[in-house]
Structure formats: structure tokens, C-alpha cells
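Reviewers of the previous submission asked for a worked example of the structure-prediction workflow described in the proposal, so we include one complete record here. The input consisted solely of the amino acid sequence. No template or homolog information was supplied to the procedure at any stage.
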Amino acid sequence: METKKPFKEKFKNSYKGTKVFYALQSYDKKIRDKPWGTTDAICCTNYLLNCPFVVCNGDDIYGENSFKILVGHLKNSDEEATLGYKLIKVIPEKGAVIRGIAKSKNGYIRKIRDFFNITKSDLKASKTKPDDLCTMGIFALHPRTLKFLKAKLRVFKKKNKGDRKAEYILPNALSELIETKKFKMKIYPASDKWLGITNPGDEREVMKRLLEGNRKKI
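From that input alone, the workflow returned the following C-alpha cells.
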């Protein structure tokens, strides 16, 4: 994994022959205190997404195999898909986090529910288990799904027009569509470690893991 240059600076709009698009969550600070969320970001760029695609957070590291799994899925299936990372593997050593935990049956998502204030020292406080699977914001989707998301987003924005902080979180939006049987979503066990920055100090752990990974390759 490259650590000296940002991904976009190094790879531009292509990675090993696969097109890469970047959606920045901008907002008018006179009207809002934060963007509308990832759902809004991808819906605003749907003119680019006219083929199956993998969407993920730009400040998370998922591992190359994670993308291989989801791209392979898109080549062979018209269903949606995501990866499941064990909760215990995606909680920082210090600090509390929010995680979207997937409830699944026979390898398919039934719903995704956000759990708040999860800490490594006290998982039981949030009624979660170490082996619960988290989606971590990476999904394999099809263009038709954007139509469903866009319709839901319009309703959400209208309902929360005066709210300066409301966000239409992508896992929540997808869970609504799964629960109303708009599509099925396969969940695959993640084969790579997830790395991300949630709390102050997390960047030190991320850099440590990246440096360890580079040394092993050498």
C-alpha cells in the first residue's frame, strides 16, 4: 500500500486498468454544518456510474483482496454485495466508535443496524459480540440501485430540510432497501485487515500497520 502519496495523486482515475472515480462530500456552510453523507455523494455522481461498481470510504484501507472479492462478485452476479469484518478487528484500542453491524442469514444481509459507543474494553455495554460482522462502508452495487437511493434521498432531504446535521448514511439507506425487498445483498467474509482513522491517535496505529506490511513485502 502506497504511504507517500495520496491514492488519487498516484493512480489518477485508473488502478490496474479499472476506472476510479472520486466523490467529494461538499456542502454550503451557510446552510449546513456537515454534508448529507455518502449516499448523497454517490447519487450526485450517478452520470458516471453506468456499470456495476464498488463504493468505499476514501479514508479507510480495506486491502486489495477485498476489492478482488467484490469485483469478482459483480462479474458473476446481478445481486448487491458487501464484506463482513469481525467487530473485534475494527475497534481501536482506545476510544468509542459507531459500527454498522450486519444481521445475516444463509450468507445474505437481512438488515444493517448502527450500534453506538462501542469500546474494546466493554463490548457488552453496546449489546454486541466480538464476532458480529460489520460492513465498514464498502459495497458492490449496480446502477439500478442508485435509482432507489436517489428516490429515498429526495424524501430524506425534504423531511430534514431544516436540520443542519442530518446525514443519510449509506449502510442505513441500503438496509432500508434490503428490508423492503428491493434487492438482495450477499455478504462475504473479509480476507484482509481493515484500517481506518476514527479517533485521535488512530493514525499512529494505521501508520504502524502500514510500515509493518511494507517490511514484510521487502
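The domain at 8-83+135-194 is CATH 3.90.550.10 (Spore Coat Polysaccharide Biosynthesis Protein SpsA; Chain A). We consider this example representative of the routine output the project will generate in years two and three.
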